[in-house]
Design brief:
The protein is an alpha/beta fold. The protein has one domain: Ribonuclease Z/Hydroxyacylglutathione hydrolase-like (Metallo-beta-lactamase, Chain A, 4-Layer Sandwich). Helix content is about 25%, strand content about 15%. The chain has a nine-stranded mixed beta sheet with strand order 1-15-2-3-4-5-6-7-16. Strand 10 and strand 11 form a beta hairpin. The chain starts with 5 loop residues before the first strand and ends in an 8-residue tail after the last helix. The N terminus and C terminus are likely disordered.
């Protein structure tokens, strides 16, 4: 498989020591201290193979399965989902996989590859099925900590309980859960809380990196903004057609979702949706050493100008400004990924995406939410979205010298193509800004130690059954 690798020096810091900052090059190379369990998992042949598939043969030690500490590696695994190697650990950003099948096909991997890669953490952007599907299963199978809003966490517990009692899963010698399995679940922001009012840190990469999370806005349709001309590349009905050649070029295989009757190898890993469907989370990872590379990811784009989102429909501009202020405190982000699929596509094109992008002053932009979602997104539509995005930048009066380095991706050719960033080389030019950012967000508590914090749903069902009745039918 041909691979495309980007190497870019991240934002870096050198000079005086500061709170939350390590300034010794030796320490920068030493990285996070992995547990004995993590090292044991990494050495398994299936883990070495899965990590090489996802992150590239050249980035995985062929004997130990360990990942490099001097690089941050990001690999797109369809739609809004990414696998990230940082601090020697694997992190999943969303877990839904477009066209996930029993055997590799148009999507060149299977669910077991994601299990075998041995993730340390799973971050869920919001609870709709095209983002959170597979999450409870992957967390239960691997022991990864699952992070989600409280509303989404309720559904994750219900998903876990259903899977524990699913004979198709538990009767499969490969898919079944380990004995006495628990779901390691961390609630990030409390149910019904106002977007941008609860900022939390997550501790799974400490002391190598600071991870920050807060609630923002899910996409929503708002009236056409008179400040800008309508994006002429947005179709009148908002529907971008699928390339009709795709079905012949990539014939469908057996989907992982069970058919009726079920076929061998199929598994029901769907999520119940629930109240967490439109509750959106923003995540930021910033290295505390070396290059001080900083990345931000979100899988939906709300209307910052109006302060509204589909889970916050009565918001006001002050709500959007509060979120914008948080984003600006993280700027500049070396790598930023946000959704190009939006409920505001017909009325306002990608205006909301550009507002987020400008707030974080993104150096590199990578799109997401391209391959599954509403009528404006889906497989084969990436090139049209790219043209719409460029037109939106021009319509909003942004000269090219203010654009980020655009790393547009197209399915399926850019699946599993690792983007590689320098985590070690220092650049003193942003010393003050990055130290100020780390200090600012170090004031906030860890989600694992605040309030309800870490929860463990046991396979007996006692900890999770109460949630099952609260998860309504799937919603995306």
């Amino acid at each position: 498989m041909k691979r495309r690798t980007f190497v870019s020096s991240g934002a870096a810091v050198a000079g005086a020591a500061a709170v939350g900052v390590v300034d010794s090059p030796a320490q920068a190379a030493s990285g996070t201290s992995l547990t004995s369990r993590e090292r044991h998992q990494a050495r398994r042949p299936e883990t070495i193979a899965a990590r090489q598939l996802i992150f590239g043969v050249e980035h995985v030690d062929p004997r130990t399965g360990l990942l490099p500490l001097d690089r941050v590696i990001v690999s797109w695994i369809t739609n809004s989902s990414f696998a990230v190697a940082v601090g020697g650990r694997v992190v999943y950003l969303d877990t839904f996989i477009t066209r996930l099948e029993v055997t590799p096909g148009r999507t060149p991997f299977v669910i077991q590859d994601l299990v075998n890669a041995a993730p340390r953490a799973i971050l869920i952007g919001h609870g709709h099925s095209d983002h959170a599907e597979n999450a409870a299963y992957l967390a239960a199978k691997t022991g990864a900590t699952l992070y989600a809003s409280e509303e989404t966490a309720i559904t994750m517990r219900a998903d876990f309980e259903r899977m524990v009692n699913d004979p198709m899963i538990q009767g499969d010698p490969v898919a079944r859960f380990p004995r006495n399995v628990e779901l390691d679940l961390v609630v990030v922001t409390t149910a019904g809380s106002t977007p941008g009012t609860q900022i939390l840190r997550l501790d799974f990469l400490e002391p190598f990196a600071q991870v920050v999370a807060f609630r923002h806005l899910h996409s929503i349709a708002t009236p056409a903004d008179p400040a800008y001309p309508r994006n002429s590349l947005v179709p009148p009905d908002g529907v971008i057609p699928v390339d009709p050649r795709d079905a012949a070029l990539f014939p469908p295989g057996i989907p992982l979702r069970p058919s009726n009757p079920p076929q061998p190898g199929q598994l029901n890993l769907r999520t119940g949706g629930g109240d967490g469907g439109p509750v959106a989370m923003f995540y930021n990872i910033t290295l505390r050493r070396g290059s001080f590379f900083s990345m931000g990811w979100q899988d939906t784009i709300g209307a910052l100008r109006e302060g509204k989102g589909s889970a916050w429909p009565d918001g006001v501009p002050a709500d959007g400004q509060r979120i914008t202020d948080i984003l600006m405190a993280m700027a500049p982000l070396d790598w930023f990924s946000a959704a190009v699929g939006t409920a505001n596509f017909l009325n306002n094109g990608l205006r909301d995406l550009i507002d987020y992008q400008q707030a974080v002053r993104a150096k590199i932009f990578v799109p997401n939410h391209q391959t599954t979602g509403g009528s404006d997104v889906g497989e084969t539509k990436a090139v049209v979205h790219y043209a719409v995005y460029l037109e939106q930048l021009r319509n909003m009066g942004l000269p090219p010298d203010q654009w980020p380095d655009i790393r547009w991706t197209a399915d399926p050719s850019d699946y599993l193509k690792p983007m590689v960033f320098d985590a070690a080389t220092r650049d003193p030019s942003i010393l003050r800004g990055r130290i100020a950012q780390l200090r600012r967000f170090d004031r906030y508590p860890y989600a694992e130690r605040k309030g309800r914090g870490r929860e463990r749903a046991a396979s007996t069902g006692a900890a999770a059954i109460s949630a099952s009745s609260e998860a309504p039918a799937d919603c995306c």
